[in-house]
Write a structure and sequence with these properties.
The chain is of the alpha/beta class and 141 residues long. Helix content is 38%, strand content 27%. It contains four helices and eight strands, in the order ββββαββαβαβα.
């Protein structure tokens, strides 16, 4: 389910439509929907990193990837992306009964040092990510 078609959409604070995908910013959550066929790398994620850092500033947040399309990312570039977003406290990926995506996500999971959750729907992923961000805010406050 696309973010715009979900009940979560009513809580979106900012939306950014970039060449690599659509990105929805909430109070303590970002939902990424990468476009079909895109290969994410350190070069084409620079704008997204800049926008994300500007939006969240120093606040903890959860990062959800809503895998509604097929795309690729190098695990080493994923590590770089994660390191650039220092206040991203968790990552979650939604796989929709797609064995290929599930295998990719399990590989990606091994490269990230932050809590990682694999979900099969947007609501579960968002709730888990929000909880992680809120717990981090409580701990650091």
């Amino acid at each position: 389910m696309r973010t715009v078609d979900s009940p979560l959409y009513q809580d979106v604070l900012e939306t950014h439509h970039l060449t690599i995908g659509d990105f929805y910013f909430f109070k303590n959550l970002i939902v990424a929907e990468v476009k079909e066929g895109v290969h994410l790398d350190t070069s084409n994620t620079k704008t997204l990193i800049k926008i994300t850092k500007s939006f969240f500033k120093n606040r903890p947040f959860g990062h959800v990837t809503n895998r509604i399309n097929q795309y690729s990312v190098s695990p080493l570039d994923l590590v770089h992306y994660s390191n650039q977003l220092e206040n991203a406290v968790s990552f979650s990926s939604i796989v929709y009964n797609n064995h290929f995506d599930e295998m990719n996500v399990k590989i990606e999971q091994h490269f990230l040092k932050k809590p990682f959750y694999i979900a099969n729907n947007l609501a579960d992923a968002a709730n888990w990510a929000k909880e992680k961000a809120q717990n981090m805010f409580t701990i650091s406050a």
